[in-house]
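User: Can you predict the 3D structure of Integral membrane protein? Sequence below.
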Amino acid sequence: MTRRADKKIGLVLASVGTVTLGVFLAIGFLIGLPIYLGILGLLLAFLATAIVFGRRAERAAFGQMEGQPGAAAAVLDNIGRGWSTTPAVAMNRSQDVVHRAVGKAGIVLVAEGNPNRVKSLLAAEKRKMNRVVADVPVHDLIVGVGEGQVELKKLRTTMLKLSRVLSGPQVTATNDRLKAMGDLMSNMPLPKGPMPKGMKLPKGGFKSR
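Assistant: Sure. Here are the predicted structure tokens for Integral membrane protein:
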């Protein structure tokens, strides 16, 4: 997958490993410890190669997910410990969608889709949540590359930089209150099992009860 998006990945990794090992070998010969520093250089070369590969692989993955429906939800699922995420808490007929994450920074609503349309989705979701969690800070982010938006590859970092204002018990209590409120997926009158082929959204979109 990385090679498809990054044609130079093999050359880059080989260069990083070779340069790292070469530097340690050169230092080893200078100070009379070529074997010791050669072994150390080999280990650090593997480490440096792994780090570079991980970053470029992540960049390639984000590049392929960019603009795909549900990409933000995939990032939220891997944001790390301390966060509870609920995908697709709001959606419209155009498949603009809002996901929700709850952590020590409060509630974060992450929207995907047309920037103008998702603003109304975010506002509606905030009004709905305000009835049960009015005392919890709410942040809203729109994923995209335009002004005022957050790039997909920076979404996790942006969320982790938010100030922590809630304690662990407060996070748990907030999650419980939001779950009691319900969400789009739990309120949808869908039959169990695979979704029927050709199923369309009802006129007017989904409405919370």
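Residues 52 and 132 are 45 Å apart (CA to CA). Residues 71-187 form one domain.
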